[in-house]
Amino acid sequence: MESHIHREQRASTIKMAAAYVLCCLIGGTAVFSIRQQIGENGYPIYLAASVRFSGAALGYLLLAYLTSNLKVSRSDAAYLIIGGLCSGAAHVFVYRATKHLPGSIMTVLFATCPIIAAFLAWLTRTERINKGTLAGAAIAALGIIIVFFDRLQVPEELWALRNACIGMVLLSFCNLAVRRLKAAPVLAQGAIFFLAATPVLWIAYWVYGERRPPGPLPLYESACLVYTTCFISGVAFALYLWMMKNLGMMRTMSCVFFQIIVALVVDAVWESEALGWVSYVGSAVVVAGVLLEWRLKNRPSRQTQTIKILGAPSANGAVHQD
Predict the structure, then answer these.
(1) Are 196 and 54 spatial neighbours (Cβ–Cβ below 8 Å)?
(2) Do 36 and 221 meet the contact criterion of CB atoms below 8 Å apart?
(3) Beta-bridge partner residues of 313
């Protein structure tokens, strides 16, 4: 019996580790892939985003239907719709910013979402803010200033930073909605989420007048679009939801630290725009701020530590030691 239990635990650990590594690798290449497909000879910005989200929505919906995983509670459906709308609106700004900012810089900005989400939770009075969040936010803000210190002289990059910041705030609202999910199947979650997000991007496509589809279809850029649809919006997002359910939000969000490393390596090898040492220093400061906030937020309180040392109290208030 014990050997069977150990085998199940080992298999579960391997699954978790594999999912975590895949999320890190795929997430670290996300922005680079987007930049490739909306390049000079690629797709219009919002056409690429709309096709990606539409493909993901159809894929999730088809798989959920084939596996009969469409049962979702009203509360979960509401949070998924809110999260999808926020994500769609966020990607309107994120895609615009990605046109001018390297993947590693965008990934560093993505890392600030947990801190922004903590402030939003405090503003909506759903959570209290702590000193770790304030310290981490201050350090991360300093890192962003360092990264963009020599970039703010370029108007395109200044607007890109504005768009990126708006996108991060909207993505943080999305995270707040998704973290409230209870027991909805992953495939159904993905279907509702992307069905809610897709119309926002199609509206942006028509509003901004980007009605020129590339023709003939560029092979390399199309391959990048298929990659973002299948692996980023498909595989990585499904693994993200699965890990949120099985690992918890904070452990899942720690993927972002390794995604930054992957993004820096990808940019160093394949990105046409080389980053200077100032950008690397600023990125390190941002990561330090986010890591500080993450560590302090997950540090057990003194009361919890005291309970662990003394033992758990019984029903009558007596304390039992081990």
Answers:
(1) no
(2) yes
(3) 319
Per-residue b or e along 72-96, where b marks 16 or more CB atoms closer than 10 Å to that residue's CB:
beeebbebbbbbbbbbbbbbbbbbb
Alpha helices in 29-130, H assignment, sequence order? 30-37, 45-66, 74-98, 103-110, 113-123
DSSP-assigned states of every residue in 85-111: HHHHHHHHHHHHHHTTS-HHHHHHHHT
Helix, strand, coil percentages (3-state) for the chain, rounded to 5, are 75, 0, 25
3-class state of residue 319 by DSSP: strand
55 Cβ contact partners less than 8 Å away, ≥ 6 residues apart: 229, 230, 233
Q: Is the model's pTM score more than 0.90? A: no
Tell me 50's DSSP state.
Answer: H
Note the pLDDT tens digit of each residue in 103-144: 888 888 888 887 888 788 788 776 777 777 778 888 888 888
Tell me whether residue 34 is exposed, middle or buried, using C-beta atoms within 10 angstroms of its C-beta: 0 to 12, 13 to 18, 19 or more: buried
Q: List, for residues 139-191, the tens digit of each pLDDT value.
A: 888 888 887 777 767 778 888 889 999 999 999 899 888 888 887 788 999 99
Instruction: Return the closest-CA partner of residue 42 out of 207, 212, 199.
Output: 212
